[in-house]
Specification:
- With 681 residues, the protein is mostly helical.
- Among the domains are: 106 residues, Tetratricopeptide repeat domain (Serine Threonine Protein Phosphatase 5, Tetratricopeptide repeat, Alpha Horseshoe); 104 residues, Alpha Horseshoe (Serine Threonine Protein Phosphatase 5, Tetratricopeptide repeat), CATH 1.25.40.10.
- Helix content is 63%, strand content 1%.
- The protein is built from 34 helices and two strands.
- Strand 1 and strand 2 form a beta hairpin.
- Helix 23 runs antiparallel to helix 24.
- The longest helix is centred in the first third of the chain and has 23 residues.
């Protein structure tokens, strides 16, 4: 009895210790006391429950779950359902946590709160929204603000990932978290300017709330603002302000935030800005997307986008095998998704395997008819890149849902015109116009009621008429123009085109139609000529009346102003021009084409210089004898004395004379000798 009493006293003391440590938040010490109690009584339900709570508080979720699973007979689901589900949730076993919550016999408020978190992680946003609405409606405690924040986060996720137009919850945006979630919802709707204003308000509220705490430093505030700045940079990127976005992204990375999800998203966005440029930087940023725990922080669509960008980066860095591996993995995860197939096709094109790329796309289009239009557009682009424009046109015309669209009609007509296939281009116009004619009728109580032609329909008819006129198909164009004029008889422009077309085919009909043209009086425009002439940029400015005198006044008063004739400049005559001699009528022709041209005379040498033996000259010695001349010229001419030069102009000094006769043949022989054998010695 004494031993039992002592044991009971010891257990009571241990429980007191556990209680005191729990109140002080010292759960490590409390766990030691609980373990001592379990040594005395290993199946004590309260002690086991306390041990699980202490382990959870210390962050040992795996060990806590192990204790729960080991003592299932003692720790039933009624006792430990919340703790078990919470451990599974924190260990990212979300499906298991959901089963544990749903299997609990009693749904406590704590389980409902956890249920909402689990549904959010599973991206079941409709059920999550209903769960939080029920919690807010039936709860009144100090956690109401947190529940409203979670509710706004669900609405933002619906807007972003499911493109659901968010309903107005009537939440007062008094905290920066609520402002941030509201901004995310606006981004999902595409209201970027409004979202930016909300984020600026969230930043202001965040600074105000954190600056009130004296223990919070500026670095702590910047770390808290990192997620808000990240969304601001994302909006800038969507608006095309990539330089500003990139600068803000890099500022956030320099802060080294602890949120791996935020870092992964920012790194991914930088990679999308870099594209095929700055690949080295992109390779570094990819490492941030591979951090541990990222897959539990981001949504499925975010993770999928990151994987897509990894595959594209592998393609840009010429890692063909890695690109194929990643795109194949993505295709196995999402067989209906279009992007993995497009990445594979792009990689094949980079490897110059266009035919394989087309086959790949064609197979996917047959298996997934919903994506056939986008696939066929890509196939057409590949055919154009190969130079097969006609085949590209055939592929485009096979997309039935786009045949009547103005953009498609314009593209086909342009391509056919490039190939000079005018008949096919007109056929495209005809099919599109017929489609609108068939769909302009609507059923009203079993009756078919025809409505006026739509602006798109009329625009197509007009473009078809213009195209036919341009390519000489006047008769076909006339029927289109008549249809347009019938729709709007007051359209003078169409009537003028119709008259112009008929004037080339049926002039009498053109005259009849011309009677419908308005008179010149009704068409006169009320234009202030003085204002028009004095306007900025006028090419002609009338001279002021005060400066007009004499002939100028007569010109102004006359019926019409005669244009001044430009004076033709007199052509320059040649220096040796003789007006008495008739100029050669063939002077404009090249010399070879003139009738009197006989060609150059061969065999006649200009001079007999260089003939004979070396040192001899053909000129007589008497001509070179200076003593026989009337007066010997000076050895060097005086400045300005041209006569001295003319006296000896026909005399060739011996030093400048070339030997005649034999030396010429010697030179030829020397040239022949120089050629020599090609083989060398």
């Amino acid at each position: 009895k004494m031993a039992a009493a002592a044991g009971a006293a010891a257990v009571a003391g241990l429980w007191s210790e556990v209680n005191r440590c729990g109140q002080n938040g010292d759960f490590a010490r409390a766990l030691k006391s609980v373990n001592k109690i379990l040594q005395i009584n290993k199946d004590d339900v309260t002690a086991l429950h306390c041990k699980v709570v202490c382990l959870i508080q210390n962050g040992n979720f795996k060990e806590a779950l192990g204790v729960i699973n080991t003592h299932t007979k003692v720790l039933t689901s009624d006792v430990i359902a919340f703790e078990k589900a919470y451990c599974e949730y924190r260990l990212n076993r979300i499906e298991s946590a959901l089963k544990t919550i749903q299997s609990a016999s009693q749904q406590t408020d704590k389980l409902k709160e956890l249920y909402g978190q689990v549904l959010y992680r599973l991206e079941r946003y409709d059920d999550c929204l209903a769960a939080y609405r029920d919690l807010i409606r039936n709860s009144q405690d100090e956690y109401e603000e947190e529940r409203k924040t979670n509710l706004s986060a669900v609405v933002a996720a619906q807007s972003t990932w499911e493109k659901v137009v968010p309903e107005d919850l009537g939440l007062r945006e008094a905290t920066y978290e609520l402002c941030y979630n509201s901004a995310c919802a606006l981004i999902g709707q595409g209201k970027l300017n409004e979202a930016m204003k909300k984020l600026q308000k969230a930043e202001e509220l965040c600074r105000q709330s954190l600056s009130e705490d004296s223990d919070v430093t500026e670095e702590d505030i910047e770390a808290e603002l990192a997620i808000i700045h990240g969304q601001m940079a994302y909006i800038m990127q969507l608006q095309g302000r990539t330089e500003d976005a990139l600068q803000l992204y890099n500022q956030i990375i320099k802060l080294k935030p602890t949120d791996v999800g935020l870092l992964a998203v920012i790194a991914n966005n930088i990679i999308t800005i870099n594209k095929d440029q700055n690949v080295f930087d992109s390779k570094k940023k990819v490492k941030l997307t591979n951090a541990e725990g990222v897959e539990h922080k981001l949504s499925k669509k975010q993770l999928q986008a990151i994987e897509f960008n990894k595959a594209l980066l592998a393609m840009y860095t010429n890692q063909a095998d890695q690109c194929r591996k990643l795109s194949a993995s993505l295709q196995s995860q999402s067989p209906e998704h279009l992007l993995p197939v497009l990445i594979q096709a792009a990689q094949l094109c980079r490897e110059k395997q266009h035919a394989k790329a087309v086959v790949l796309l064609q197979d996917f289009a047959e298996q997934h008819p919903a994506s056939a239009a986008e696939i066929k557009l890509t196939m057409a682009q590949l055919k154009i890149a190969q130079g097969s424009v006609t085949k590209a046109c055939m592929i485009l015309r096979s997309i039935e849902e786009l045949q009547h669209k103005p953009g498609m009609v314009s593209a086909l007509v342009t391509m056919y015109s490039h190939e000079e296939d005018i008949d096919s281009a007109i056929e495209v116009f005809t099919q599109a116009i017929q489609w609108y004619q068939q769909h302009q009728a609507r059923t009203n109580n079993g009756c078919c009621v025809f409505q006026p032609k739509s602006p798109v329909h009329l625009s197509l008819i007009r473009e078809a008429a213009n195209f036919k006129l341009k390519h000489g198909r006047k008769k076909e164009a006339i029927s289109d123009l008549e249809e347009l004029w019938k729709q709007n008889p007051k359209d003078v422009h169409t009537l003028a085109q119709l008259i112009s077309a008929y004037s080339l085919v049926d002039p009498e009909k053109a005259k009849v139609l011309s009677k419908h043209l308005p008179s010149s009086d009704t068409m006169s425009l009320k234009v202030d000529v003085d204002v028009l002439e004095n306007s900025h940029g006028a090419t002609y400015v009338r001279k002021k009346a005060g400066k007009l005198t004499g002939d100028n006044q007569q010109k102004e008063q006359g019926q019409g102003e005669v244009k001044k004739k430009k004076k033709k400049k007199k052509g320059k005559l040649p220096k040796n021009y003789d007006p008495k001699v008739t100029p050669d009528p063939e002077r404009w022709l090249p010399m070879r084409e003139r009738s009197y041209y006989r060609g150059r005379k061969k065999g006649k040498k200009k001079d007999q210089v260089g003939k004979g033996t070396q040192g001899s000259t053909t000129t007589g010695s008497s001509e070179l004898d200076a003593s026989r001349t009337a007066s010997s010229p000076p050895t060097s001419p005086r400045p300005g004395s041209g006569a001295a030069v003319s006296a000896t102009s026909n005399v060739i000094p011996p030093r400048h004379q070339k030997p005649a006769g034999a030396p010429a043949t010697k030179k030829k022989q020397q040239q022949k000798k120089k050629k020599g054998p090609k083989g060398g010695w």
